[in-house]
Amino acid sequence: MTKVIKLRKGLDVNLKGKPAEVIAEVKCPGEYALVPDDFTGMKPKVVVKEGDQVLVGDALFVDKLHPEVKFTSPVSGVVSLVERGDRRKVLSVRVKADGKQEAKSFFGEQSGKAERDTKQDVLALLLESGLFGFFRSRPYDVVANPEDKPKAIFVSAFNSMPLSQNFEFVLKGQEAEFQAGLSALAKLAKVHLGISAKQTSQALTNAKDCEVTVFDGPAPAGNVGVQINHVSPINKGEVVWTMGAEEVIFVGRLMKTGKLDLTRTIALAGSEVVAPKYYKMTVGQKLTTLLEGNLAKADHHQRIIDGNVMTGLKTTAEGFLGAHRTEVNVIPEGDDNAEMLGWIMPRFNEFSVSRSYCSWLFGKKKEYTLDARIKGGERHMIFSGEYDRVFPMDIFAGYLIKAIITGDIDRQEALGIYEVAPEDFAIAEFVDSSKLELQRIVREGLDILRKENA
Amino acid sequence: MKALRNYLDKIKPNFEEGGKLHAFQSLFDGLETFAFVPRTTSRVGSVNIHDAVDSKRLISFVIIALLPALLFGMYNVGYQNALAAGQLEQATFWGMFWYGFLAVLPKIIVSYVVGLGIEFTVAQWKHEEIQEGFLASGILIPMIVPVTTPLWMLAIAVAFSVILAKEIFGGTGMNIFNPALVTRAFLFFSYPSVMTGDSTVWVNQQSILGLGFTAPEAYTAATPLGQAAADGFAGFDCQTIQNAIIGLIPGSIGETSVIAIGLGALLLLWTGVASWKIMCSVFVGGGLMGYLMQVLGLTQIEWWHHFVLGGFAFGAVFMATDPVTAARTETGKYFYGLLIGIVAVMVRVMNPGYPEGMMLAILLMNLFAPLIDYCVVERNISMRAKRAIKK
What ipTM is given for this predicted complex? Predict the structure, then answer.
C-alpha cells in the first residue's frame, strides 16, 4: 500500500488560461541557447568556439570545478555565439540548428549493455551525455556534485503551481522511458517518487524501482522540497539529489537508445494566450515561433515568463526556453494599470487570501486574471503567521527569512535552511502583505551559506 | 480618474531626486499610493503574481473596526457632559454626539499631525517609502485617553512615542512596544493628575462652541472600576453592569462600550486581520484570574465583570492583537494572550494605587513576546538537532 501524506497548508490560485490537453507543433526557430545560469551554482567553462560543428550531446560548456559535469547541446548545428556579459560572464552559448538533429551515440560496441549495468556505468553515462547537470542537490538547490553520496534521489511527478504542466498528460506514450529512467536512477541511490492523489496512471502509481508516496493537498505540495521534508528530511551533512519528472524521461530515452533527446512537452498557458495548449519543444529553443500568433492582441503590456508564474523568469519573445522549464506563461504586465484607492475598494476581480477582499465569496471555481504588479509597497514583516499558512513544512518560515536577512548563519542552519529551495517560498511570497521578495532572499542566503561552508 | 493619474505623472519628476520639490517626496509618495495602487511590477527572480492584499488594506480594516467604538465614544462624551450638568432631559441625541465630536476631533487631529509629521520626516530622511502603521496608532491614541487631556500633553506624548518607541527601532514592524500604549503610559507617568481615576478627568464639563453644557459646580465622576477599587473591590449592581456593556459610563473615550468594541472585534476576526488566538486567550486568561481572585476572597467583583469594565475589552481586541508587538508564532499567541488576561486582572485587584491593569499588562507582555516566541522556535530547533543525532 502506498503511503498517503495529507497536507493542509498551502494555496491553490485558480488562474485563467489553463492549457488544453492537446499537443501542437512548433516551427523550428533555427536558434537554440543553453544558459549556464539555469544550472544554479555552476561556473561554466566554454569548450566550443564560435563556428564549431556540434551534434546533439556534444559538450558546450563544463563545470570549472568539476569538468566531468558536462552541459551538452540539445541540437545539432553550428555554434553561432558565445554570449558574454559583464566581467566576461558567459550568458549563453547559442547553436544555429541544421535541422537534422544528428545525435551522438553514447553506447559502445555492446549496444549499451555494459554502459548501464553498474552504478559507475550509469553515472559515467549521465555525466558524459550532459544529463547529470539536470540533477539538483540539496542543501543549496544547486547542480549536484558527482563526488557526493546522496542518501536518496527525489522526483516529484506533479507540479501544483497554477498554470503548470500536467505531467500525467505529458507522460502518455512515454511510460516505458519514464520507467527506464527511474530504474537507472535507482542504481545511483534510493529513488523516491512523489505523486499527486489525483494521478491514476499505472506508470506512476505502480512505478518500479522506487518508493512511491502520494501527496494530497494544495500548492506547493508538488514541490520536491515539501515532499523531502515529509518523507525523509535532510539533516546537516546529508545530501539529497532531485530531478524533474520530465528529465527522468530524458534519462530513460538515453538508457534505451544511447542518444540524448531533450524534447519536452511544454504548456503555453496564461490569460494572455489565445488558445493555451501543449507544444513539443526542445530545451533551449527560441520562444519566437512558439509565441507567434499565440498572444492575445492587447493594448496593454504583456509579461512573457520563461517558466511558471510563481517561479519563472521574465523574458521576451526573443528569449529561450530554460533548461528546467516545463511551461511558458504569459500574463498582463499591469504597469499601465491605474487602479484607484486599492486600500478600500472591493476589487472583485482581484484574488486574495485575505477576507478583506471578496474572493472568498466566489468560491474556488472562479478563474482570475492576475497581472505582474506587486500591488503594494515593500514593508518590514508586519503581520504574523502569513507564511506559515501556506508553508507545508516543519519549518518556521518567517524566522528563517529573518535569519537570512540578518545574515545569522548559525541560526539559519538551526532553523532548517538546508531543507529549502527558493521555489518552496513561492506561495508565501505570493500571499505576503509586506511584499518581501522571499525567493530572492532565500536564493541569496543559500549562495552565501554555500560560500561560507565551502 | 485618468486626469488625476496624468496630473500625478506630470508633477512626479519634481519630487524625484534633483527635482525642486524633492524634500516632499515621502509626502507625494504617500498620497500617490493612497490614491492609486502602486504600479511597480515584480522584479526578475521573484514571484510574478501577487495577492491583492497589502499592509495598507489590512491597516485600513483596523481603522474601520475602530469606528463603532470611536463614534460611540463621541456620543458618550456628550452624554456624560449632559449627565454632569444634570441636563440629561434637555439633551438631544445629535446634540450630545456633536458635542462629543467637537471634543474628540482636536485630539485626533493633533495625534495625526504630530505622528504623521514625524513619520514623513523620518521617511524622507531615510529615503524610504512612508509606512501606514501610524494610521492605526493615530486613531487609537485619542481613544485611550480621558477626554479632558490637554492637547499639548497629547502632542508631547505622541512625539515621544513615535520617536522613542517606534522610529529608533526602525519604524513600523520593528517596534517592541505598542506605540499607542506607550503614548498612554507616557501621559500616565508624566502627568498622573490628569490621567487618574478619581478626579474630574473623565467628563468634559465645559460647553464647546455653544454645544453641550457647563456643569454648575465641580463634578467628580469616577469610573466604576475606580469606584470599586476605592471601596475595596466591592461588587457592582445590575444597573452599572448594564451601563458598562452599553458604554454609558465615564472612562477613556473609546473604551467604554463593549457592544461597539464587539462590532469591531467581529470585523477583525472575520477578515483575519487580528488573531483570534490572542483575542480569545486574553479573555480566557482574564476570566480564570478573575475567578481565582473571587474564590480567594480578594475581590467581590464577578469574574466576567472585568471584561466589561475599564479598558479590558478594548485592550484585548485592539491592543493585544497588534501583530508587530504580539507573539508571532501560532503557539506563542495562546500564551501571550493568556498572560495578558492574567496579569491585567492581577494588577487590577492586587495593586492598591491604580484600578486599571490592562495597559501595563499589555506593555509587559510586549516585552515578553520575543521570549515566548524564542521558546516555541527553540523547540523546533531542538527537534531538528535531535533528528540529526538519531540518524
Answer: 0.90
